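new request in #modeling-help
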Amino acid sequence: MREDKILLSHGSGGGQMLELINGLIIKNLSNQYLKEMMDSAVLKINGKKIAFTTDSYVINPIFFRGGDIGKLAVCGTINDLSAVGAKPLYISLSLILEEGFERESLERIVESIKKVSEEEGVLVVTGDTKVVEKGKGDKIFINTSGIGIVEKDLELSYSRIEKGDKVLINGGIAEHGTSILNERLNLKLSNPPVSDCKPLWKIVNEVLKVSDKIKFMRDPTRGGIASTLNEIVSKSRLGIELYEKKIPIKENVLGLCELLGLDPLYIANEGKMLFIVGKEDAEKVLEKLREIGEKDAEIIGDVIEEPKRVLLKTSSGGRRIVDILSGEPLPRIC
Amino acid sequence: MKYILEFRESSLQEPLIEKIKEISFRKGKFKIMEVCGTHTVSLFRSGLRDLLKDYVEVISGPGCPVCVTPDSFIDKAISLSKKKDFIITTFGDMVRVPGSKSSLEKERANGADVRVVFSPLDSLTIAEENPSKKVCMLGVGFETTSPSLAFTIIQAKRKKLKNFFMLSAPKLIPPALSALLDERIGIHGFILPGHVSAVIGSKAYKILEERSIPGVITGFEPLDLVQGIYMILRQIERNEGKVEIQYKRVVKEEGNEKALKTLNEVFEPVDSEWRGLGMIPKSGLKIKDLYSEFDVERVFPLEIEKSEENPACKCGDVLKGIANPEDCPLFRKVCNPENPVGACMVSSEGTCSAWYKYKI
């Protein structure tokens, strides 16, 4: 349903956000690139395939276990480019700072941007800085855009996905979201979750080298793997069956989800990629992932013909639907 | 945290599922009710509902505190949220519950200060940090939650807080069970709530034993549920009607005396309106006179218009277990988690929401 005001749930990666994007943005601005709604637009310029993406980061807290808003911004942009198979080359950096923000914090954030961009060989080539009055922002907001190049003759699209393909992930789910929740709630856990925030290009590049049966990739950030897989299902007009026992999740992450009554399938990741791979190459890709350090990588599901939904084969042996997220994931009363 | 995966391991559940099947082959398919929203969700999320559907009919009762909270409560909360200098603190799943015209989520977008807390005690911290504001906690929940609401009020008194209040409407499970039994809806046994029972103990369900209806206090993991269901069917087969505890690692016969004492210190039973079920005698809790300074309704009298619930909404029958969500003309058509009409769709633990989200 259309709301007259923007609600927080319009930003949580679920159905209301889709309604807003489709009903307002796509409706008014659509073109051949935008309507694909990929993590990055792949533009054909002078025979070259150039990937272009943008993202804004408004996280609270700005420093967390496993990263900070600067690392998150660079990694997020690198990962959006990686998801379309593009080698990340250049990024822009826009800062919106709140009056009174400590310089020392900003220095730490810039340091971490420097570190990850150097390690990944991407250059920050342009930027912008704005300062807003105290109370008109929340410490620091960052926008990054990125440009990458698709070097291979690579075709990644929903239309390549077919029945029998396998769904792979490179490690445990829900680590970023639970880490942030833990910091926000100050739960004082003895073994708190650590964000998985990391750049994925090197991993993706290795995977693309071993298999030409990579049909689709997406990094399941906000809304978790459930939201990403639902999107894949709706665009590919196929179904996906997941195997609960195969979905990697760290014990402390699962514990926190249980404590707060949250479903880890809907919790954000910042260092994970979902790969849809032709059946014949799935084992080979899995081996490669584990060989390059993604020890918890798993084949977590199959592409099926019917029903055209995301299903979960549970550890108990039953089956259920994994639906699209509705509203914000709200902690429950008891 | 340990002991999560162990309770989800299928090899431990399989022998019990076999026994459930055997009883069903011998005696037929029985109708049992769970009275806790967490059971509703766990049965769906674990896939057990799908796995057992041919052998036992599990229906969901009025076990979600959000779902049974009437429109008028939300309307009161909204009218408070519009008052100058008020901060509303609430458990997360109340935020989206529709009142007669709006919800706290929408009021938040309109500028109301509505904050989600994980513990009611967080409200006291907010009150201390905002001395110029008035902080009102929405006190809803069953016996699991109400001792912590009571403790919060006791702490507020100790700290001599003048700017903390509670809009209070906690509810009690046994009177609701009693009201359901009076309606003779043909339930053969009850999966009784694990955490409510951790507070009130198994003795609180003597009403079931009086009527020889089997009840098993059950935990929330798949293995707990399978064992609890098996224990109910075993009683049915043996013509027994007693209250047993499956969830022994948490629940004692006498309950939690300290929690009950805290509860009784602050609250007293009062007739209470349940969404869908109507007025049930002595089924709610009100703040005792001794603590009336924290009862927001006594300090700031509220006037709200009397509201009508959507007449087509079958939440009431769903809560009683006499209708399935799919029997409701609004289900999936007008009523969905994005735009919930009845409360059973709003809370993640509501029956309609669980059907919508998980049912194949």
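bot summary: Chain B has two domains: 5-65+173-245, 66-172+255-299.
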